[in-house]
């Protein structure tokens, strides 16, 4: 099956197959996902689809198997949660964490990444160099500028600056 033939096959059958899987599954979004994934798998096997002579049946079967696989995964995950009990309650972020995240969002992307790698992931400058491919001096510059920007953005408004300083 040529590229053009596969594109024509897709255009001609995707709506019908999605409708069929929707009826089988009862979930339109799930049907759309598994049909698209089946077409992706079919794309790499388009020569086999052509020789089989029943490409629509092949796509439908693959889509159904993908849906069943997803069901099994979800059921196993639900069973695991039941066995381990309810997850512990985790408090939401406090005002300080929210302020920090908002201040980090205002930094340029590279500074934010560097600050996160260094302070949250506990990576050294050398490890950040290895991960990002940037020079050590660039990393140090990002850290210095990021700290300065965060200090300015996270300054407690209740504390007045000393005008004589």
Automatic annotation (TrEMBL):
Origin: domain of life: Bacteria
RNA polymerase sigma factor 70 region 4 type domain: residues covered: 99-150
Any one GO molecular function term: DNA binding
Gene Ontology terms: biological process: DNA-templated transcription initiation; response to stress
Pfam families, sorted: Sigma70_r2 (PF04542), Sigma70_r4_2 (PF08281)
Keywords annotated in UniProt: DNA-binding, Sigma factor, Transcription, Transcription regulation
Entry similarity comment: Belongs to the sigma-70 factor family. ECF subfamily.
NCBIfam families registered for this protein in UniProt: SigE-fam_strep (TIGR02983), sigma70-ECF (TIGR02937)
Name under which the protein is recorded: RNA polymerase sigma factor
Protein's organism: Streptomyces chattanoogensis
């Amino acid at each position: 099956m040529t590229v053009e033939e596969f594109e024509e096959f897709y255009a001609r059958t995707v709506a019908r197959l999605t409708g069929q899987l929707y009826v089988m599954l009862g979930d339109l979004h799930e049907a759309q996902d598994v049909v698209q994934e089946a077409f992706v798998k079919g794309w790499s096997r388009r020569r086999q689809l052509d020789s089989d002579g029943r490409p629509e049946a092949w796509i439908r079967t693959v889509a159904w198997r993908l849906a069943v696989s997803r069901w099994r995964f979800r059921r196993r995950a639900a069973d695991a949660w039941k066995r381990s009990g309810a997850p512990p309650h985790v408090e939401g972020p406090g005002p300080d964490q929210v302020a920090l995240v908002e201040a980090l969002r205002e930094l340029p992307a590279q500074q934010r990444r560097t600050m996160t790698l260094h302070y949250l992931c506990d990576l050294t400058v050398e490890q950040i160099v290895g991960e990002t491919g940037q020079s050590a001096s660039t990393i140090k510059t990002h850290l210095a500028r990021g700290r300065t920007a965060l200090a300015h953005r996270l300054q407690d408004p209740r504390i007045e600056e000393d005008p004589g300083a």
